[in-house]
# Entry
Amino acid sequence: MNPETDYEVKRRHMVAEQIVGRELTDPRLLAAFESVPRQLFVLDEQRPHAYEDHALPIGFGQTISQPYIAALMTNLLELNGDENVLEVGTGSGYQAAILGRLAREVHTIELVPELAARAEALLKELGFDNVHVHVGDGSLGWLEAAPYAGILAAAVAPQVPQPLLEQLADGGRLVLPIAGRRRQLLEVWSRNEETYSRRVVTSVAFVSLRGEYGWKK
Ligand code: SAH
# Structure
């Protein structure tokens, strides 16, 4: 089989088994995961594993999230297509690409300049003109483009970073993993004017958020 067809088949299986199979069925969400070529966002030697049901290394001690976790977090943002969205922890750029399919504008921040450069080049090559990659400490958010209807952090924080709460638009949602004593919990924070409500979704495993509101080195 030609390799491109092979990846398409693997991608369809990934969506059917890992995403629909776990009860995420929003057609827009599924279309986004069916359209983004995940194999291009992983290291060359990991390409054969790009559609497997787990996270993969992307260099610099970082990982691209398991497809299902990326889908779950995206789904929790409840995007309808006209939002301005922030992602903290660009990594490979894969999650940003998915968000780019589902929101109007995506700002994504990465602390490791090499990862940001790689992701930016790939997103540009694939034509994701609405995804903007920035280098910096995303635990501080990205004030220049705030407020955001949705914020997604792809690295675990010791507690919810205050700047991310402040940069949420009224009615907006922040989805992120928070470190507990024994495990990490995926949380959703919703803003209603100056009131914030929090709910815990499930337990997860993410790499650490560094920076001012993360773990300082
Ligand atoms: N969403 C990514 C997965 C990212 S892994 C993907 O789809 O591939 C988490 C990323 O967060 C890593 O690349 C790490 O370098 C980055 N990171 C950690 N702390 C950060 C911070 N304070 N600001 C920005 N990025 C950070």
